[in-house]
Amino acid sequence: MCSQSMDPDGSEQDPETKKYSSVCVGREEDIKKSERMTAVVHDREVVIFYHRGEYHAMDIRCYHSGGPLHLGEIEEFDGRPCIVCPWHKYKITLATGEGLYQSINPKDPSAKPKWCSKGIKQRIHTVTVDNGNIYVTLSNEPFKCDSDFYATGIFKVIQSSS
């Protein structure tokens, strides 16, 4: 069993700093078996994937329409592993949270579709492993991310107790 958060000196933190402290979400041996797990980290629902020896964490609900990413399949597109949303088949890179789509040049009938990025759409969080425990630290990147809409407010599945 792991302690809830990694606070090096054990001191009290202000609420804003605490929101970005690491939270233990489970054991390494468990996620390696299931290749994914879900967790609530400081009131934010996340999904953690273990894919090809790497850990990835992101908001659990798809940026497009709130679909359940933890139920999606991981597939490779343009050499990048992506979670495919089970609702509308949106493709999101595990490493960066970019939305991928295929595009062709309509003025060139012989053109082959190529993979393009919509930019970062899904908020990615940091995963660390310490002594067999998996920790997630929420992203504190200042940009607005499309998945924030479904990760906060009335769309959260888990409502805060306050």
Automatic annotation (TrEMBL):
Domain Rieske span(s) in chain numbering: 22-136
Keyword Phosphoprotein among record annotations: yes
Source species: Delphinapterus leucas (Beluga whale)
Keyword tags: 2Fe-2S, Acetylation, Iron, Iron-sulfur, Metal-binding, Phosphoprotein, Repeat
Name of the molecule in the record: Rieske domain-containing protein
GO function term, MF aspect, one: 2 iron, 2 sulfur cluster binding
Lineage summary: Eukaryota, Metazoa, Chordata, Craniata, Vertebrata
Superkingdom of origin organism: Eukaryota
CDD domains, per database record: Rieske
InterPro entries: Rieske_2Fe-2S, Rieske_2Fe-2S_sf, Sol_Rieske_ferrdox_dom
One Pfam short name: Rieske_4
Co-factor(s): [2Fe-2S] cluster
Region (Disordered): 1-22
The gene coding this protein: RFESD
